[in-house]
Amino acid sequence: MREEEKLQKVKEHYQRMDIPDAAIDDAIKKGMEQASAQRRLRRSFSSRRIRFNLKWTSTVVAAMILIFVMMIRVSPVFASYVSYIPGLEKFVELVRFDKGLTSAIENEFMQPVGVFDEHEGIKITIDSAIVDEQQMVLFYTMELSDELRDRVIQDMERSSFEAERTAETRFDQLEVGKVQLLDEHGESVMASMQFSSPVPDEERKKGKWVNEMRFYFHEALDSGQYTLQIWVQKHDPQPGIEREFFDSTWIIPIQIDTSKFAGMKETYELNETVTIERQKITFSRMEVFPTRIGIHVKFAEENTHRIFGFDDLELVDDKGEKWGTIVNGVTATMPGENEWIIYFESNYFSRPESLYLQFSSVRALPKDQLQVVVDVENERILKAPKDGRIKKVANTGMGLSFFVKMDDRDEHMYLNIFEHKYRDADGNELESNSAFATNYDDFGSEGEESNLKQIGLVLADGEFTNPLTFTLNDYPHRLDKSIRLKVR
C-alpha cells in the first residue's frame, strides 16, 4: 500500500472515533489480516507483581523510573505520516519507549473506541485501544469544562509555597487515580493495572489532554461486555496530605471480542541451558504476542547463587535491529520459585528471519549472603554481603539510607536492592511502602569513595525491636559472561 493511501485510510479510521461502536473490534481484525499477509509474503520468498521481587507494584515503580533514561525510538517512516493525523501523534508519544506497541499502531492494530462518560465538569473518553490476550492498553482523553479549566489555571498560578501551606486540593494535578475493570457479571477481572503519572502542566492549561492505562491479564479473557470504573483524583499523593477523589464514578463500557486476536500467539521451544560460574540458567520457551514477547527462564535448584537480573538483555536479529526488555510496564513475573517470565518489546509485525537472545552478565549473590542486618539506633551494619559494597547506613530525612558502592555502568540505573518486607528482632514482619535512590555525589563525596549511591526505605510506622533484618532483592555484584542464543 502506497504511503498516501495508508495515510488516507488511517485518517478516515480516526475521524470516526467519536462513534461509540463495538470497542475492541474491527481494526484488530485488520491487524490480524495484515500480519497474516506479511507471513504469507515472507514464506513465498523462503520455503508473548525493577524485577523488584518480581511483584506487580514494585515492577511498575521501577519501570516508571527507568523510562526517563531511555532513548526515543520511533520509525522514521511512521513518524512521517502520523504527524498529519490529528491526535494520533499524541498516542504515539505515550508509547514511544515501547518499540512493539509503536509497531502495533503502525500496523493498524490500534482500534477506535470512542466511548465516554462525563461528571463534575470532567469528560473522560476512551479513544482507542491496543489489546491481545496478554494485555490491554487504553488511550484516553480528559477534557475539562470551561469553569473547571479556569480553576486549574488559577491553581497553577499560585505559588507552590501557598499550595503546600494551605494543603488545598490541587486541581492542576487532576488525573485518573483508581481504576477497576469488571466483567459482564460485575465481578472484578483478574488483572494488574498501571496508569501513568499526570501529564505536564502545559497540557492542562488547554483543559484537554491524553494519557494511557494498561491492564495485564492473569488469565485469558472471554468475549463479552466489560465495564471500566474510573475514579479521578484531585491532587497527587503527598506526605501528610491524604489523596482526595471526586464523589462521582465514571462508568465506561468496553466490548471485547477475543476472536479478533485468537491464534495470534506464537510459541518457540528453546530448551537452551547456559552455565555462568557453575550457575545453570535454562531458557525454556519464547511466546510472541502483538503487544509483547515473554521468555520463560528457569534457574536450577542446586544453584549456589540467587540471580537478581540480567545486564544488557535484548533480542537482536541478523541485521542488528534490537528489541529490549519492557521499561514502561511490567518487566517480568514469577510463576514459580525458580522461574521467571521476562517481557520484551514485541517484533510480531516485524517478522525477523533470525533472532538471537543476548546479554553480558548477571547480577547475583551467594544465597547465604542475602540478609542485611542493621542496628538502627546506632546506625551500624551488623551483617552484609562480603564484597563490602554497602559502606554505611544512616537515618536520614528520607528514611533509612544505605550508601552502596556501584559500578560505572550503574550510574543511571535504579536498583531497588531490598524487598519491601522486613523483620525486627522479635520476628515481626513489617512492610515499607516507599523506596528511594540518589547518587551520593550530589551531596558531596565521602573520602576517596566514588560512585556511591544512596538507596533506602521509608520504614513502616509504629514500634519495632532493634535490630532489623532486610532481604536483598537486587545487588550490583556480577557474574560476567557474554551469552548469545539463537531463539528463532
What topology does this entry show?
Layout: H1 3-15, H2 26-45, H3 56-66, H4 76-82, H5 88-94, H6 99-106, E1 111-119, E2 122-131, E3 135-144, H7 146-157, H8 160-166, E4 175-182, E5 191-195, H9 201-204, E6 208-217, E7 224-233, E8 250-256, E9 266-276, E10 279-288, E11 293-299, E12 305-311, E13 314-317, E14 322-324, E15 332-336, E16 339-344, E17 355-366, E18 371-375, E19 380-383, E20 390-396, E21 399-405, E22 421-423, E23 429-431, E24 435-439, E25 452-457, E26 468-471, E27 478-486
Antiparallel strand pairs: 1-2, 2-3, 3-6, 4-7, 5-6, 7-8, 9-10, 10-11, 11-16, 12-17, 13-14, 13-17, 15-16, 17-27, 18-19, 18-26, 20-21, 21-25, 22-23, 24-25
Could you say which overall geometry the principal axes of the C-alpha atoms support?
A: globular
Give the strand content: 35-45%
Helix content bin: 10-25%
Number of strands: 27
Rg over CA atoms, rounded to whole Å, is 24 Å
Alpha carbon gap, first and last residue: 28 Å
Query: How many helical elements?
Result: 9
On the 0-100 scale, what is the average pLDDT?
79
By helix and strand content, what is the structural category?
alpha+beta
Low-confidence stretches: 1-75, 80-86, 163-169, 442-446
Widest sheet, order of strands = 1-2-3-6-5
Explain what this protein looks like in three dimensions.
- It is globular, with a radius of gyration of 24 Å.
- Residues 1-75, 80-86, 163-169 and 442-446 have low confidence and may be disordered.
- The chain has helices at residues 3-15, 26-45, 56-66, 76-82, 88-94, 99-106, 146-157, 160-166, 201-204, and strands at 111-119, 122-131, 135-144, 175-182, 191-195, 208-217, 224-233, 250-256, 266-276, 279-288, 293-299, 305-311, 314-317, 322-324, 332-336, 339-344, 355-366, 371-375, 380-383, 390-396, 399-405, 421-423, 429-431, 435-439, 452-457, 468-471, 478-486.
- It has a 5-stranded antiparallel beta sheet. It has a 5-stranded antiparallel beta sheet with strand order 9-10-11-16-15, with no helix packed on it.
- 18% of the residues lie in helices and 38% in strands.
